[in-house]
């Protein structure tokens, strides 16, 4: 997935990632999550969801919660081309508009010759 670099940057260790992948007793989720579904309350990092693009409305909800709590923070989410072709903005835009949450879209496309 796209997220581990950010999690490492926030202080999550490679050892913690390994514990999560193996679902052992040192895993913060105690093996209750699928592999590579990292999460850490300490690092304000929610777990990845398996279905495509479900993180988009979740990020809107998190942003709204931060706004309502008056916190000077932001919600960030990651998605790939599957999410952009599977879900259109119309599906989560009403929530964004209703809650007056600011959404910035930054799309980076990487093209590689194979």
Automatic annotation (TrEMBL):
Single GO MF descriptor: oxidoreductase activity, acting on the aldehyde or oxo group of donors, disulfide as acceptor
Matching InterPro entries: Alpha-ketoacid_DH_E1_comp (IPR050771), DH_E1 (IPR001017), THDP-binding (IPR029061)
Any one Pfam family match given in the protein's UniProt record, by short name: E1_dh
Keyword Oxidoreductase carried by entry: yes
Dehydrogenase E1 component domain boundaries: 1-86
GO BP terms in the entry: branched-chain amino acid catabolic process
The entry's keywords: Oxidoreductase
PANTHER family referenced in this protein's UniProt entry, alphabetically: 2-OXOISOVALERATE DEHYDROGENASE SUBUNIT ALPHA, MITOCHONDRIAL
Protein name as annotated: 2-oxoisovalerate dehydrogenase subunit alpha mitochondrial-like-like
Organism in which the protein naturally occurs: Trifolium medium
Source taxonomy: Eukaryota, Viridiplantae, Streptophyta, Embryophyta, Tracheophyta
């Amino acid at each position: 997935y796209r997220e581990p670099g950010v999690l490492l940057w926030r202080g999550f260790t490679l050892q913690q990632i390994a514990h999560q992948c193996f679902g052992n007793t040192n895993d913060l989720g105690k093996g209750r999550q699928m592999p590579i579904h990292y999460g850490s309350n300490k690092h304000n990092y929610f777990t990845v969801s398996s279905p495509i693009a479900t993180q988009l409305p979740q990020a809107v909800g998190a942003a709204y919660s931060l706004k309502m709590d008056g916190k000077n923070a932001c919600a960030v989410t990651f998605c790939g081309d599957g999410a952009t072709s599977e879900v259109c903005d119309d599906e989560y835009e009403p929530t964004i508009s209703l809650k007056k949450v600011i959404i910035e879209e930054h799309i980076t496309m990487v093209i590689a010759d194979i």
